[in-house]
Amino acid sequence: MARKRQSDEAKKGAPEWMATYSDMMTLLLCFFVLLFAMSTIDIQKFQAVVQSMNGSLGVLDQGTTVNMEPLINNFPNDSPSETNEEFKQLKAEIEEFLEENELQGSVMVEINERGLLIRFMDKVLFDSGKADLKPAAQQIIFKVSEILKETINNIKIEGHTDNRPIRTQRFPSNWELSSQRASNVLHYLEESCGIEKTRLSTSGYADTRPIDTNETVEGRQNNRRVDIIILRSSMNALEPN
Predict the structure, then answer these.
(1) Domain containing 204 — which CATH number?
(2) Each residue's pLDDT tens digit, 113-154
(3) Which of the residues 20, 56, 82, 92 could staple to 67 if both were Cys, CB 3.0 to 4.6 A apart?
């Protein structure tokens, strides 16, 4: 009779199925937190999430928790307002240099969603149909590079042409011309200006990204350009090298 009474007594503590249920909920929480981290396409944020969960997960008596404080504190400080303040300062320095050298009509500077854009009309840097930097262009780029060194952000150089075809032995099409112009600017920034090559990348777009009409002389002049973009930190993972 004593054994029967003992078995009939209710077991103390949570039901056994609660352990399995709690483990499952913990795993689901980890899964969705990781999904959130990876959706930002930011490796630093992903690493911060992993670090925040290290040793912070428990079940039953220990509780089920994720320590969010290190996650928040370790996120990169790349808010648009703070980044724009840095870009505004760089923009002002470049514009001052352009004004001193009467280059306002040939070089344009603006802040956009990708970062700080420095746009050179092709006549400033190159002779028509050529990709070799003019001596005067080298001086301009060298001065601009001194300002580029004030930031650690990556730099993208993009070559563009108008839609008039080119067929020479060196440049069978505008693809080769735009790519070589961007590449020559990159090499000058690296070899003569001391910009780290790990920060640099190029693209040649030929006439595929016009900013003006190709139906007028002025429009075609605007489309022939080389863009140097100081990328926002958040754009680094999105921009191919």
Answers:
(1) 3.30.1330.60
(2) 999 999 999 999 999 899 999 999 999 999 999 999 999 999
(3) 56
